[in-house]
Each structure stands twice: as structure tokens, then as C-alpha cells.
Amino acid sequence: MAYEAIDIGNAAVDDSSSAGNDYTYLDYYNAANASGILNSVSIYINDAPEGSYSIGTFNNISANVWSSRDYESFTSSGTGLKTFTGRNIDVGTGDALGFYLATGGALEAKYNSGGGIGLACRKAGNQFGNSNVTFGAE
User: Listing from the earlier edge strand, what are the strands of the sheet with 133-134?
Assistant: First the structure.
């Protein structure tokens, strides 16, 4: 059986902006094109200290209201592009990619300006595992 590759979120690239810790960020400009399981995720770290990350999916309830579908947490250190394989994150068609940085450095990020792609909204604290959360525009 052939599986469709799931495309969700923007590419993990070295950019001039960064997203700091203790916020959950959503990238819904490139919503998931299919349902299934995310087996790998990539992030670009621009600050070297070891960080504690959560990455997962959120489904849209209405307007700015989102519910966490699934996520995984892990730690990483060093800078640059990091790809984490062996993941098992549920995703539904139309889901947004979310991430949370608990401690440590910062992640490279594109914000909703200029090209209109990248991080669309955020909410203080770790919102993974929560339902019906109202996110503010980024």
C-alpha cells in the first residue's frame, strides 16, 4: 500500500527571526495535506543551549480556537537543522503544526509578515494536551 507524504508547516530554515521559550506557536499557513502519522519532524535551532521542545498537531475548532491532537516532547542541543525521526504524531487533514520551547535556546521562525507565511499565532505556556484554546494573532 502506498502512502501519501504528509506536508505540514513551513520548511525548517535559517531565518533572521526567532521564537523564544514558554509560548506555543502554530503554523497554519501550510496546513496538513493528509491524515496519518508524522514519522519525522525538523526544526532549526539558532541558540546552542540544550532545549526542551514539544512538537505536534492542532486541529481548528473555529476562528482562533484550536485543540491539540497529538505531540511528542524531546531535548536537543547545538545549533542548526535538526531532524528527529522515529516519531509517532497523529495528524489530520487541515491540521496546523505547533511547537513549544520549554527551556533553552530559540528556534528560527518566519512570522506572518512580508511574505505572509510562517507562524500565525501563539499562546503563552504549553498548550499541548489542551482543548478549545484561543490563540492570539502573531
Answer: 133-134, 65-76, 51-62, 96-103, 23-27, 121-124, 136-137
Cβ-contact 131, 62 below 8 angstroms: no
**Angle 15-128-108 from CA coordinates, rounded to 5°:** 5
Determine the 3-state secondary structure of 117 from DSSP. Answer: coil
pTM for this predicted structure:
0.81
Neighbours of 30 (CB within 10 A): 15
Provide the grid cell at 44: 532549526
Q: Which of 59, 52, 55, 70 is nearest to 25 (CA)?
A: 55
Q: Determine contact, residues 117/29, Cβ cutoff 8 Å.
A: yes
Q: For the segment 45-83, what is each residue's pLDDT rounded down to a tens digit?
A: 776 566 788 889 999 999 889 999 999 988 877 777 777
